[in-house]
């Protein structure tokens, strides 16, 4: 049995799904999670907006001894997903310690742009 | 009532508003703040320069359970705002814990460039 | 004798070797390690995937008072290396404290894109 | 008198001065330092390489209540400066607490690329 490593509560304030793509790559964001443990990690994500109520408790499972690079466009709760082209923020709570990084590829123009941050660990 | 999460004092040393934009996107910076609490957060920003006195105590309100992606070009105090094309730095003090990320889109050239960091938490 | 500085255990959740390059630069990732100590640092890297078992205990040596910017494409264990174009994650354990940063140059398009993060320190 | 804020010892493992520039912007790196104190901060920088001895104790002064975005190409010690096109790393020790961010603009291609990280704080 391998031990869980990292933190259980992470924040990413700058979320944004670019609305368009040019060139050969697709604009997207990924929430990249590493689960070092032999056990599955169950994540609960809350999505915060500038002008409406949060979408709470979107569930994501990360298998044991695996990473998962979660496309934010794939997240949904009761048929509600994150709209493109609006600023939002992410709160991630895991039942066991994991490590979380956030990256965005913006391909609005033909030539792409990249950014990446470690999520801010709370606990 | 939801609890406040994060830290109350954050620093961003590398501020810079690109003076020009080409292509379809506008060069800009955003200070992205997440307020997980049910209460409003009141931020006080101080802007430091290389060769002049700081602009102190610019106020920004973040509503409860909301994120706000604040354009730095929108910040002003007594009619004074941040000039474009000069290096500066940001100190942010909030009355309740929040989480702060800083991102810049540089569209000086037709194809854009992106960078992002979590602000450095002090307290 | 100079003292070791930093941490011994670091995580990078978002690894990805871009499969193609255009223009004059080559797409690549670097794990940038600084060893401030007068002694050699021995690193053990584990590579985690989305859908297969990890590659464990890839060894890298960082000489004393030196930095090394390790290309991830150069890492191998028993003839197995990291495939291009698949999401993966990195765990790095050093026998003495070091500091670790991860950077990616994506030259899929003629004009390149850059991202960089400090690795997440665990211990 | 305003108080010093931050840390006194910072590490940046991934330094690299791009050797060429195309388009209208110049490739460069900046070490961005914020000194919140009313007193001057005296920085000592050590530059580490992959294959030669470090350049030690390059001095930089940051005036009180000011930021300074230091171009790495401007750093020199006894006539020795950082060569372009080689991987290196930075250790920064300040006599009073400051906050340090590192950013790179790569304009090797006509369209530029950006990356930025907070330096890793040691003490």
UniProtKB/TrEMBL annotation, chains A, B, C, D:
Pfam family, one: ASRT
InterPro entries listed in its UniProt record: ASRT, TM1070-like_sf
Alphabetical list of SUPFAM superfamilies matching this protein: Hypothetical protein TM1070
Protein name: Sensory rhodopsin transducer
Species of provenance: Paenibacillus phyllosphaerae
